[in-house]
Amino acid sequence: MIGLPVPRSPIDLWLRKELAEHLRLPDGGWRVEVIDGDIYVTSRPELRYEAIVRSIEEAVAASGSLSSVRGDESPALVVTPVADAAAAPQDGVPTSLTVDVLSPAFFREHNREVEERHRAGPRASSPFRLVVDAAPEACRATLFGPPHAADGGYAAVASWEFGDPVVLPQPFGVTIDTTAWYPLE
User: Fold this and answer.
1) Residues 57-104: pLDDT tens digits?
2) Can you tell me the distance from the alpha carbon of 76 to that of 62, in angstroms, rounded to the nearest whole number?
3) Residue 149 to residue 143: CA distance in whole angstroms
4) What domains lie within the chain, and their CATH numbers?
5) What CA–CA distance (Å, rounded) separates 67 from 79?
6) What is the mean pLDDT of residues 16-33?
7) CA of 143: how far to CAs of 3, 23, 167, 168, in Å?
8) Pairing mode, if any, of strands 77-81 and 97-102?
9) Which of 184, 174, 154 is nearest to 79 (CA)?
10) Please, which residues bridge with residue 100 across strands?
11) Averaged over 12-25, what is the pLDDT?
12) CA gyration radius, the chain
């Protein structure tokens, strides 16, 4: 792995869709993730991953009060109130929710533990994280937040198995259909 200097925070580069460009990656086929300050480059996720992200994105859009920013990097989605969406990444408006979809391949490739990523510190000033663990042995979505003041880690607020509707509490008020979610290989 070769380290390249990052002039701004990686999440700012991701929000501006400049992180892959900054890393000078060839077009297509690559996913850039920023995890605990480390940048990882892996192959683009499979169609099942895209179906999970798209269903969350559609539920957010249907709410009418939330907006999402999507990219090829991690987090998969950054959700903000519609009123703040125009200001969000340039003006540093805190996000309401980040969404991560965990791929078992990532953990095999990078020898990291799922629990380590679940409890990682805040991303993009987000008070909540929705983590979709799509490993065949897990198949669960967990809402984490808000971060603990002492260590910056998140605590689980609620959890749902694939097939059960994910009902995000207020201030989100969004229900996400998971009947079409399948494990990632």
Assistant:
1) 999 989 888 888 775 556 788 888 876 555 544 445 456 888 888 877
2) 18
3) 18
4) 45-176 (3.90.1570)
5) 6
6) 71
7) 32, 31, 10, 8
8) antiparallel
9) 174
10) 131
11) 74
12) 16
Amino acid at 56: I
Angstrom distance (rounded) from CA 81 to CA 83: 5
Residues 58, 89 contacting (CB under 8 angstroms): no
Report whether the peptide linkage leading into residue 75 is cis, meaning its omega lies within 30 degrees of zero: yes
Tokens found for residue 137 = 């042995």
DSSP result, the chain: ------SS-HHHHHHTT-HHHHTTPPSSSEEEEEETTEEEEEEPP-HHHHHHHHHHHHHHHHHSSEEEEE-SSBSSEEEEEHHHHTTTTTTTPPPSEEEEEE-HHHHHHHT--HHHHHTPPPSTT-SEEEEEE--TTT-EEEEE-SPPTTT----EEEEEETTS-EEEPTTT-EEE--TT-----
Separation of alpha carbons 170 and 66, rounded Å: 12
Residue 176 CB neighbour total at 10 angstroms: 24
